[in-house]
């Protein structure tokens, strides 16, 4: 009998090709160990609330009232909720046609798209058009939709940073395009090297690939760098010269842990550059409620904003978004609250500022504890986490460890991370899940464990690592990066 449509051998090959290491072998093993009763520290996913981060009060109050609108009719509502939360809940409910249980427009609620446009204008100093902003279930859905719109066949190439967040490699596989890698420069704090980028494009073209888009992740995941203004300018010039749409993944724009390079959006720099670049380069920028001091990953709120896309294309994107009917409406309200938080003078302003600052300042301290911890370990070097939520140390694995990994049929970094997991319960993602240069090994961990647990986690990592190196290191023929 021939295989049935959903038997493994007859599945869509693109589905089989998808790889997503953030929930891959290490995660599965960690889940097994947890079931067996081992204490696991899940640092594999940037999921702040899962590691104890508390939700901000004001947005939860507003969404609670939107979810339970009968509370607004309760004479005691003013005892339980501050007046600005009540007013805001009414404001959002009035935008819906039937509350949170009703589908919204497929692009999102117009009132919230306007709030997003106002936020972008305040941030960049250039007006933004709500008609060019679509709300999505987290940034992921927006990225997937844009890649789907761009990729026509396997000859269409997308320039993706390596290391990258595997949403990009996975989605390009799924839609049958070609990933064109460009390597970030670890020694230059994971900056862009345009000589290398041009080489990557030339190699792809020599294979008949049409390079159509370029992805940047700023601040970087897994690499944690904040791109300089000069880098982004050059990048936009490059996109102009090469006729590429720039996909700017800016989901970590609130997560900045140094003052030298504040976040500047690709959009602001594009407009600063003036014509012809500002009028020509097509740009799609992504943002989310999952990151920053919000960390509301489970709410699935996000948006993308399109610059220099013609109306016909926007219509096509709207049409395809319509097939999914509506982005989730509570997620849209979180997004509205994120881009329009309490203002000075509002009842909830002070509390909101205190709560959000506490999260951000603690993340900054944790970024330092982690980087310093890694750099104190034998054969480990690590760039400082300037932004985002991750640390990405390079682990200089001795040849004997590489051989031992081969013997058990594992990639060397997977071998190391599995041993780390078994010994300490720390669940990380091997660098190969994000891509890395041949023969160079990394792991990724989030900087999200509770600050008070951090010193013990780093001590346990150091003990494991230094013993591992002791076990496998040959005294000769091996050097640090
Ligand atoms: N872009 C980047 C660079 C991300 O890191 C993530 C999530 C997303 C987009 C999508 O997030 P949302 O769909 O929730 O908006 N980061 C994953 C990660 O590396 N760990 O946790 C999730």
TrEMBL record:
Cofactor entry: pyridoxal 5'-phosphate
GO BP term, pick one: L-alanine catabolic process
Pathway: Photosynthesis; C4 acid pathway; Amino-acid degradation; L-alanine degradation via transaminase pathway; pyruvate from L-alanine: step 1/1
Reaction(s) this enzyme catalyzes, per UniProt: glycine + 2-oxoglutarate = glyoxylate + L-glutamate; glyoxylate + L-alanine = glycine + pyruvate
Keywords: Aminotransferase, Pyridoxal phosphate, Transferase
InterPro entries referenced in this protein's UniProt entry, alphabetically: ALAT1/2-like, Aminotransferase_I/II_large, PyrdxlP-dep_Trfase, PyrdxlP-dep_Trfase_major, PyrdxlP-dep_Trfase_small
A GO cellular component annotation in the UniProt record: peroxisome
Aminotransferase class I/classII large domain ranges (all copies): 87-447
GO MF term (any one): L-alanine:2-oxoglutarate aminotransferase activity
Entry-linked CDD domains: AAT_like
Pfam families tied to this protein: Aminotran_1_2 (PF00155)
EC numbers on record: 2.6.1.2, 2.6.1.4, 2.6.1.44
Role summary: Transfer of C3 units between the cytosol of mesophyll and bundle sheath cells to maintain a nitrogen-carbon balance in the C4-dicarboxylic pathway.
Membership in a protein family: Belongs to the class-I pyridoxal-phosphate-dependent aminotransferase family. Alanine aminotransferase subfamily.
Quaternary assembly: Homodimer.
Entry protein name: Alanine aminotransferase 2
Gene source species: Elaeis guineensis var. tenera
Biological classification of the source: Eukaryota, Viridiplantae, Streptophyta, Embryophyta, Tracheophyta
